[in-house]
Structure formats: structure tokens, C-alpha cells
What does this fold into?
Amino acid sequence: MTQDKITMLHGSGGQATGDLIKSVFAEAFSNEVLGQMEDSAVIPGSGTIAMTTDSFVVTPLMFPGGDIGRLAVCGTVNDLLMRGAKPMYLTCGFILEEGLEVSVLKQAVKSMAETAREAGVLIVAGDTKVIEGNGGMYINTAGVGFIENNVDISSAKIRPGDAILVSGTMGDHHAALLGERMEIETEIKSDNAPLTEMVAALLASGLELHAMRDVTRGGLATVLKEMAESSQTTFVVQDEAIPVTPQVRDFCGLLGLDPYYMGNEGKLVLILPEDEAEQAIEILKKSRYGDNAAKIGIVCDDTPGELIAETAIGGQRRMDVLQDEGLPRIC
It folds into this structure.
């Protein structure tokens, strides 16, 4: 492929499309399943299957600590992991706007391939379309994972007396994107990461894992409130226990942001019995991307469906899901 930019010709389905697939996608994603180059991928599997789909429209396409390609894999893989599935296969559909720099596409595809290898998944099918536009790019994914027979993780299993844990600091991805858009120079980087190693270690530990959720759009408060409502329990968290980096905390102070409502792309919430919390934190901290894991609260049954944050001075505030738009095109 000799062109430097994507044109409408690349969406024609003809030679230009074939050249694009061979020179960009096939080269990066090469594996025996994808190499069949059929209309669909035939893959082995048995037992309980987890499946998810997502679309990624993040802006900018490249940001501190990541890009749309890495983000697409992380978001899809982590959704499967939160139900205790072992992610196995991904599909990816690329919608490319005319004028997109081929170098930008290659970087996103390279990141996607590298992150897929890190997460232990194969990209087994895909599609490419080109539309009129101003050089943008969007990625749609589907993911499939397998669940062992003895694994049952969902918000319905949450019980009073459980501990609420997070795997790390809040707000990193949100702050990195917003800082880039506003041209504010910071050291903040996105936390976009596949949590495969972390969840595998938790599942192998024999701990009684009740529920897991990844903290993405809407932030921590939205996730916790939804889990409290689903389980009809009360979540009580301590403001001072929420891990936030000094850089993100300063950034929030500068712009009047609340870390409770800032998105991440490489952090999870874990709910399990209180007497297993210490062991779980130890596992999280030994896992990649879990250095700042912490217990942030407990589950009780005082006011079912409520999320209560206890302040540093002993006050309380009832919290809800994110009401405003927040930061658009964060993933």
C-alpha cells in the first residue's frame, strides 16, 4: 500500500480494500484463525460463553498513555472479565473517515494488536468501512469469553457485610483526555489497561467473589450506585479511602471536578466478604495495574439501593448516578 491517506476507494471492497487489509490489519493481527479469511470465523468453544460488544469514538484518537486501538481492546476484554469469563476472541469493525492519516491508523492497529497479545485474546474477524468526514476513526468490537462451571459473579450475589474494594486510583483516563483537549500540560496518563492478569489471580485464589465492575463512563459513584440498586443493599464508602493521585487531585481542584464521577479504563470494583478483603487487596497489589488497590467501604442493609459517602469531617452525602453529560467521547 503506497497511499499516505485513506480515501473512499479503500471502502470499495476491491483491490484497494484488499491492499489495506493485507498491509495494515492482516500483518498486525496475524493468527491461524484470522488467516482463514472467510466470511466468519469458526472457533472452538464449549460450556458457558460470555459475549459483549462496544463502540469506541474517543477523541483525540491518540492521548497520553494510550490510543483508540488500545482502548478498544481494554474496554471489551474488561467487560468480559467482570463476569469471571476468560476472554478468548475479539472482532473489530473500523469506520474510517476520508482524510484519515494512514500513519494514525497503523499506530492504532499496532496498539490494538499489542494489547490483544497482552490480554491473551485473538482478533479473529473484522470489517472496514470508509465514509465522508474529516479524518476521524471509530472502532466497534465484539468479544467472547468462556466461564468455568463454578464461577458465578454478579451484583445479585452482593450481601450486607461485604467489603467494597477498588483496584487503583480514580479519574486518570478522564483527566488525561480532558487535559489533552484543553491543552493543559500535566503528567497525567490514561490508565487504559486489560485486567486479565488481575482477574485470573482473583479467580484462582478461591476467594468468594460476589461482584465485579469496571469503572468507565460515569465514574465510581455511578458504578457503585447501580450495584447498590441491583442488589438492593446500601453501599457506604469513605471519601478519604478513595485512591486518587496527587496530580489528578490537583487537576480536579483546578477545574472543579469530582473524582467520584470521572471515568477510568483500567480499574475495577470488587465486592466480596469482609473477612476476605485483606487477602484480595494483597492479590490486587501483586497484580499488574493493581499497585494502589484499596478497601473503600462496606455493604449494609440500612437503606436499600442507596450510596452514601462519608466525608472526612464525619458528614454524609447521598450520591446518585451521573446526571450531566460528563466528558463526551471518553471511550
Notes: The CA atoms of residues 69 and 112 lie 4 Å apart.
